Amino acid sequence: MNRVPSQGNSVSYLWNAGWEGPPPPRGCEVFVGKIPRDMYEDELVPVFGRAGKIYELRLMMEFSGENRGYAFVMYTTKEEAQLAIKILNNYEIRPGKFIGVCVSLDNCRLFIGAIPKDKKKEEILNEMKKVTEGVVDVIVYPNATDKTKNRGFAFVEYESHRAAAMARRRLIPGTFQPWGHTIQVDWADPEKIVDEETMQRVKVLYVRNLMISTTEDKIKAEFNKFKPGVVERVKKLRDYAFVHFFHREDAVAAMSVMNGKCIDGASIEVTLAKPVNKESSWKQHFNGQISPSSENLLGFPNKEDATQKSLGKPASLSVHLNGQQSPGPPEAESSTYHIFPGIKLTPISMYSLKLSHFSSAVMHLDYFCHKNSWAPPEYCLYSTTSQDGKILLVYKVLISSITDDFRSYFMPEKLCTTVEDAKELAAQFTLLHLAPEQAYITLLSLNAAWWDSKANCTPYLV
């Protein structure tokens, strides 16, 4: 292993100089958190070498010479990375010091917001290539009602996480103004990696770019044309849908036949849906196994303080699934600290924070509207009385600045017994309809079980 400090000593690299061939594929890297600040490669390499051959170790450093408390370790195979997670997560690396180890998603995608809606994919791609290096592709979604326009945002795919990080650093100051517009730049939500064995069992198709007016019955009829009776059911949300088949082989055949076909004048895109392992997701949250989308230090719960921290929502958000109580959604750590004399407090806007600081869909929606230069959401409360005399509540969400799209208000079709639940449900419903490709994954990680129970949302990634 050779050691090379990077520019400014912000990263300490260790890599296998004897490696031949291309770098290991994605899925071979793990993220390590809660490393003691005075620990370096001489102690880390022997520990992580127990799981397999290390291709590269990147220990994040302060200019003071201490490490930042986290590192990235890349193995030569995915199996070695999984073994490292299994045997080293919550490993006592020093007396009373437990590290956290989880998969590193190696994000290579940036979110670019506030793009003029009349710009085509090729124009956006060319602009990004002018000022950043390593651009592989640009993903642009058409407007739900006017397919000649985009939705005002795009995702830029880079050849590596490093290339994406350098591009973000270049774009984020706001000096780059394509077409005379100030764009917004952030990390895109990392793609969820689903193992090949699981994907081989999928019999649900994700259908995108549908017209708002297209009904579930029309979609079912179109997919049944190539082989009658193969579709079990269809779940449509705004301009995309999930088509469930009785048999996998029919789903695969339908994907090949229907991809690129026109339904009600719209050319649709069809792919296999990515299933969400809810049990695994909850285990990851409660074990602190949340992978960063960039080089951010995340808090891993220690064994010694596990009893001091509550990760669940109040009892009112607990739900019953199949007769068993399911935990409420995990939320960000909300500890309190004393304000000591002399502590300097600096004014800060909530919009300068990261999404990980928000523990509710209400805050996510407010952040999302600001990010896209929309008016803040307005909540209008309505009520009715149930047959047994209970007051039932629902919120209508108004966003006045998007009236040029399909509609400016959103209201779920379910009533709640508390104001808090009604507002949270309305915010989630609005997010899923405004930006399903980005918000759906965010909401699933926020409170998958609660949303699935209350809103009857199909648990598949878009």
UniProtKB/TrEMBL annotation:
<keyword id="KW-0677">Repeat</keyword>
<dbReference type="InterPro" id="IPR006535">
    <property type="entry name" value="HnRNP_R/Q_splicing_fac"/>
</dbReference>
<dbReference type="InterPro" id="IPR034434">
    <property type="entry name" value="RBM46_RRM1"/>
</dbReference>
<dbReference type="InterPro" id="IPR047837">
    <property type="entry name" value="RBM46_RRM3"/>
</dbReference>
<feature type="compositionally biased region" description="Polar residues">
    <location>
        <begin position="284"/>
        <end position="296"/>
    </location>
</feature>
<keyword id="KW-0963">Cytoplasm</keyword>
<dbReference type="GO" id="GO:0048515">
    <property type="term" value="P:spermatid differentiation"/>
</dbReference>
<keyword id="KW-0694">RNA-binding</keyword>
<feature type="region of interest" description="Disordered">
    <location>
        <begin position="284"/>
        <end position="311"/>
    </location>
</feature>
<dbReference type="GO" id="GO:0005737">
    <property type="term" value="C:cytoplasm"/>
</dbReference>
<protein>
    <recommendedName>
        <fullName>Probable RNA-binding protein 46</fullName>
    </recommendedName>
</protein>
<keyword id="KW-0896">Oogenesis</keyword>
<dbReference type="GO" id="GO:0048477">
    <property type="term" value="P:oogenesis"/>
</dbReference>
<feature type="domain" description="RRM">
    <location>
        <begin position="108"/>
        <end position="190"/>
    </location>
</feature>
<dbReference type="GO" id="GO:0003723">
    <property type="term" value="F:RNA binding"/>
</dbReference>
<dbReference type="Pfam" id="PF14709">
    <property type="entry name" value="DND1_DSRM"/>
</dbReference>
<feature type="domain" description="RRM">
    <location>
        <begin position="203"/>
        <end position="275"/>
    </location>
</feature>
<dbReference type="InterPro" id="IPR034435">
    <property type="entry name" value="RBM46_RRM2"/>
</dbReference>
<keyword id="KW-0744">Spermatogenesis</keyword>
<feature type="domain" description="RRM">
    <location>
        <begin position="28"/>
        <end position="106"/>
    </location>
</feature>
<dbReference type="InterPro" id="IPR000504">
    <property type="entry name" value="RRM_dom"/>
</dbReference>
<dbReference type="GO" id="GO:0007143">
    <property type="term" value="P:female meiotic nuclear division"/>
</dbReference>
<dbReference type="GO" id="GO:0007140">
    <property type="term" value="P:male meiotic nuclear division"/>
</dbReference>
<keyword id="KW-0221">Differentiation</keyword>
<dbReference type="GO" id="GO:0005634">
    <property type="term" value="C:nucleus"/>
</dbReference>
<dbReference type="GO" id="GO:0051728">
    <property type="term" value="P:cell cycle switching, mitotic to meiotic cell cycle"/>
</dbReference>
<dbReference type="GO" id="GO:0048255">
    <property type="term" value="P:mRNA stabilization"/>
</dbReference>
<keyword id="KW-0469">Meiosis</keyword>
<dbReference type="InterPro" id="IPR012677">
    <property type="entry name" value="Nucleotide-bd_a/b_plait_sf"/>
</dbReference>
<dbReference type="InterPro" id="IPR035979">
    <property type="entry name" value="RBD_domain_sf"/>
</dbReference>
<dbReference type="Pfam" id="PF00076">
    <property type="entry name" value="RRM_1"/>
</dbReference>
